[in-house]
Specification:
The chain has a single domain, classed as Alpha-Beta Complex (Nucleoside Triphosphate Pyrophosphohydrolase), CATH 3.90.79.10. The strands form two sheets. A six-stranded mixed sheet has the order 4-1-6-5-8-9. It has a three-stranded antiparallel sheet with strand order 3-2-7, with helices on one face. The longest helix has 13 residues. The relative contact order is 0.25. The protein is built from three helices and nine strands. It is globular, with a radius of gyration of 14 Å.
Length: about 140
């Protein structure tokens, strides 16, 4: 008998400042720019996980504004829940997983962030919280 396929759930909080810029990180392990996020722990709520990941990776405590997107990596079975957020305290800083942070404009996001992560940030900037986008990708590119 084959084991059931398993999915992993990741959470991301895209903090947006008063100038419409998004807080992004440069990962220490691969040098890629992306929004802060990671795997949801078994014993935490979705909201708490998104807030924890933002704090761990940026040093900024965030308040979630609303769900802006649901994204599935069709190759790996990872489902990502992305929230728009606002910073409530702390200054962006690096840490064990982060080699740089920046408040990125839309143009910065388009120039620096790989497509499957950039769309998450752009959706958070553009979407009305409560009307999330649903998108699929293969880990590299968006799928139709």
């Amino acid at each position: 008998m084959n084991p059931l396929p398993r999915h992993s759930v990741s959470v991301t909080a895209v903090a947006v400042d008063d100038d419409g810029r998004a807080l992004i990180i440069q990962r220490r392990d691969n040098g890629r720019w992306e929004p802060p996020g990671g795997v949801l722990e078994l014993d935490e709520t979705i909201e708490a996980g998104a807030q924890r990941e933002a704090l761990e990776e940026t040093g900024v405590k965030v308040e979630l504004v609303g769900l802006t997107g649901i994204y599935k990596n069709m190759t790996l079975g990872v489902v990502a829940l992305v929230f728009r957020a606002r910073a409530v305290s702390g200054e962006p800083q690096t840490g064990p997983e982060t080699q740089a942070t920046m408040w990125a404009s839309r143009d910065d996001v388009i120039a620096l962030v790989p497509e499957v992560y950039a769309v998450r940030v752009l959706d958070a900037l553009d979407s009305s919280p409560g009307t999330p986008r649903i998108r699929y990708h293969d880990g590299i590119q968006l799928l139709p």
